[in-house]
Design a protein that fits this description.
Distance between the termini: 16 Å
Structural class: alpha/beta
Order of helices and strands: EHEEEEHEEEE
Oligomer: single chain
Number of helices: 2
Length: 145
């Protein structure tokens, strides 16, 4: 699995996320789409068995993570935002589902519920107001032939 993470300026969080995801048995490469045009990205590196590469672009757009890249060397690509943490067991499960249905996109939406004042159940996403983050938390994709 190639993991693609987009980031702009939360470098401390990015470092934590990269180290965390490098512990996954199914992730072999992490590609960071670097969106801060004012800051040079760190050098490419390796953490354990995982290669970590930083991709820069001429234009800053969130669509950069969907651009074809020769650095994607696996059949499966997991795309995550830098502020989403998916349990490693869930990544394994997503990968297994994707392997059974490789022509499909496998997605997750990290949601949980909480009780607001007045004992009203509400859905939460990434510890924020759910209306602020309507996109999915992660998608397993596959490169086209």
């Amino acid at each position: 699995v190639t993991l693609m993470i987009s980031t702009f300026e939360n470098f401390e969080l990015l470092l934590k996320q990269v180290k965390y995801y490098a512990r996954s048995a199914v992730v072999s490469r992490i590609l960071v789409t670097w969106h801060n045009m004012q800051v040079k990205p760190p050098p490419n590196t390796r953490i354990g068995h995982v290669i970590v590469q930083f991709l820069t672009f001429r234009e800053d757009t969130l669509n950069n993570r969907f651009n074809p890249s020769w650095q994607v060397t696996t059949n499966a690509v997991l795309i995550l935002d830098d502020d989403v943490r998916v349990h490693l067991h869930d990544i394994d499960l997503m990968f297994e589902v994707w392997r059974k249905y490789p022509a499909n996109i496998v997605t997750l939406t990290p949601r949980w519920f909480g009780i607001s004042p007045g004992n009203i159940y509400t859905y939460l996403r990434n510890n924020q107001d759910p209306r602020r983050n309507p996109h999915s938390g992660g998608d397993f994709l596959f490169p086209s032939p």
